[in-house]
Amino acid sequence: MHRFANPARFLRIARVLTLPLTLLGLVLTAAGLWIGLFDSPPDYQQGESVRIMYVHVPAAWLGSGGYLGLAVASAVALVWRHPLAEIAARAIAPVGAAFTAICLISGSLWGKPTWGTYWVWDARLTSMLVLLFLYLGYLALSSAEAERGGGKAASILAIVGVINLPIIKYSVEWWNTLHQGSSIKLSATGASSSIAPEMLMPLLLSVAGFSLLFGAIVLMRMRAALAEQAVAARSRRIAAAYT
Amino acid sequence: MNTNTIKPGMKPKHQRLVLLGLALAAMAGALALGISALGTSATYFYAPSDVFAHAPAPGEAIRLGGLVQKGSVQRLPDGLTLAFRVTDNARDVPVRYTGIVPDLFREGQGVITEGHFDAQGTFIATSVLAKHDEKYMPPEVAGSLHKVQGKVTS
């Protein structure tokens, strides 16, 4: 754990990783979206609106996966007082919130032609909206705490909010919902999918691309936050030297 | 706090870790209790079998979901009203709806209707939504698996 607690070591690794992650992420996203939008078949029921899936599904997974990352980073910050953990949590939150918003908006645009409505208050849609509110609550609380210096409330909120993740995942199994069940299932025996292979391939490409971009943006934000801290420390030292 | 799990000699780091573990366990317990207490009240719609098990009062607003029974869709002489049956393959309920249905509405398709039962036991729907399933495939594949059901045309 403490091998990575060193911000200087982290910065060396992050500096090397940022560019390749960004480039590979852009290439995979472009390939996935190109094939998904122009070179894959329409669906037998939804027609062309199935193509929204190639944005909606990666956004949904990263919105919830990002929240798990936010909660783990907050737990590490609370328990081990790891200097990078809080920076990581603050770096993840707005990115995860953006993906959650993309998921909600794209899903709503898909819902109108498919279901006949932009929005319903079923368990899946509602729990996903709650996830967006959790992100916004974390962002507001952590920026208020940063202004005052210190505080644990934002980290605690992030950890408590984890309870929403199983609710999102299993909402379509626990209750009758308008949202359909999972098409891709992971189990001990392997993964199964009810998506045709020529649609699954671009979907997985865009999931991989979106994920790498998520990682790259978080690294950039963490590097920027560390640079800001260094600048602030230096100006304090200079100010101290001249008084 | 339980003195068996948090000992005075523990490092603060380990105390915090134990606290975090206890908090997570408490959250999991709260979630399990909450889910079991919610039961079906967080459900978005009732299936025909649920309606037969707990009959709603005539006029009570509910949502009824299921499949449009094959061969049941009729357009009434006024040209606007559809009569069909919603089934969960165990029980089925007659439904009447005046208005425009989504493109995906057809026999054998999942639908969710909003409305109430009249005194005769017919469900008077005020809205009809199409439910999509988790299968995604191109039309050629679907055509061979799955004969496209007679889409309702006026």
TrEMBL record, chain A:
InterPro entries assigned: Cyt_c_assembly, Cyt_c_biogenesis_CcmC, Cyt_c_biogenesis_CcsA/CcmC
GO cellular component annotations of the record: plasma membrane
Cellular localization per UniProt: Cell inner membrane; Membrane
Every Cytochrome c assembly protein domain range: 11-179
Recorded topology in the membrane: Multi-pass membrane protein
Pfam family, one: Cytochrom_C_asm
Secretion signal span: none
GO biological process: cytochrome complex assembly
Chief subcellular location: membrane
GO molecular function, one term: heme transmembrane transporter activity
TM spans (from-to): 12-38, 58-80, 92-111, 123-141, 153-172, 199-219
UniProt keyword annotations, A-Z: Cell inner membrane, Cell membrane, Cytochrome c-type biogenesis, Membrane, Transmembrane, Transmembrane helix, Transport
UniProt function note: Required for the export of heme to the periplasm for the biogenesis of c-type cytochromes.
Family to which the UniProt record says this protein belongs: Belongs to the CcmC/CycZ/HelC family.
Protein name: Heme exporter protein C
Organism of origin: Glacieibacterium arshaanense
Protein encoded by which gene: ccmC
